[in-house]
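Hi R.,

As promised, here are both runs. First protein below:
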Amino acid sequence: MSLRSLPLLRRAASAATLVALTLGAPSAFAADLVVSAAASLTNAFRQLGEQFERAHPDTKIVLNFGASDVLMQQIIKGAPADVFASADQSAMDKAEAEKVVQAATRKDFAANAIVLIVPHDSRLNIATPKDLARAAVKRVAYGNPASVPVGRYTRGALEAQGLWDAVAAKGVPAQNVRQALDYVARGEVDAGFVFATDAAVMVDKVKVAARVPTTTPVTYPIAVTAQSKQAQQANAFVQYVLSAEGQATLARFGFQKP
């Protein structure tokens, strides 16, 4: 072997050692647990995720927030998810019908309410949904009923009061409840419908004009997905959400027991 070839051999050996060390090194977490949750759960689930990670240091919670129907469709199309938490039963029913969640793991874990909100500096004296029919009210935000649970609850409630057509004519459909909240907070609309827990996030920018009775209870189901490769950890997260500690955290963010 010539002296000229030694540096090349040393470099090759070093590279091989680096590859071996890289492949052999354990990952920082034994499992990345993807939790797809309704947008209205954003603040509460961020806290729940941190608490769960402290109790399970080998698991990293990866949160994916959005409209429940959008998340459900993502899961149906194969997007990675281990846990699905919906803001209404309809989206979870569809997920179960498509067999993308484990029906045996499905549990209701929280309840909420629909409220009518207005910008904090509003001078329109809106006090009930009926006031939205007045000519002075031009734009009203609510979740798109076709894909957003808060929109479905809102439509059902307004239909029961004979107000849906009048409000829909002024409607500004939002992609999720947080977008509806933002529209009101920025004063881009005269009023909006959100969950009570969302209104509580921006008490300095919006105020609740009225609590809106719904035709169906506002309940949140959660389930482990059928595709999860971390079923044990996924079940542990679901059980944590249902535990006394998890329920206490949800209560701090304004959620009620189902």
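And here is the second one, sequence first, then its structure tokens:
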Amino acid sequence: MFRLAGVAPGTVPVAVREQVDPSLLALMDSWSETPAFLLNRRLDILARNPLAASLYRGFANADNLARMTFLDPAGPAFFADWHRAAEACVANLRLALGYDANDHAALALVEELSAGSVHFDALWASHNVRGKTHEAKTFLHPEVGSLTLEFTSFDVRSAPGQQLIVYRAEPFSPSDTALRLLGTISCPVEDTADADTGAAFGR
């Protein structure tokens, strides 16, 4: 009746509960020497294994790669090539909106980043679009120093839009030594995923 009268009420966006495959969580947790985490298209970190949690320990809230890059004071010090990391975040968010231009959570994130970072605003205007592929990144970790890690992204077939990101260091390299040292530093991950249900919340 509302539609016929031309006064259809607006749809109120609700938080989406994103399911994470428990078997995938178990696989990630078994990689004691490999940082691995799960992302959605908005770059929300849905789950991470203990080594990935230790890798991002310096951030106030390791919940979303874009927020971590642009809004967290740790971002510029953590990413050795911060501008490259920032460009990649912006390109991925544009790709997310390419899949769903009405993604309320993605639009709210863009608004939040625009309000909080002039750098994001300038990069957003460039209209670059690309997803994660395979390359190397250098991180400056506050506890173990420089880490150059290759990453590979895998689409999760059971959950379209989710990507598994896996890092590795060149064997016997200084980064490999630093990564092994990082593995001795425990970091709880219960804030990221529910170990009983294998479920996590996107933002």
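A quick note on the second one: The radius of gyration is 18 Å. Let me know what you think.

Best,
J.
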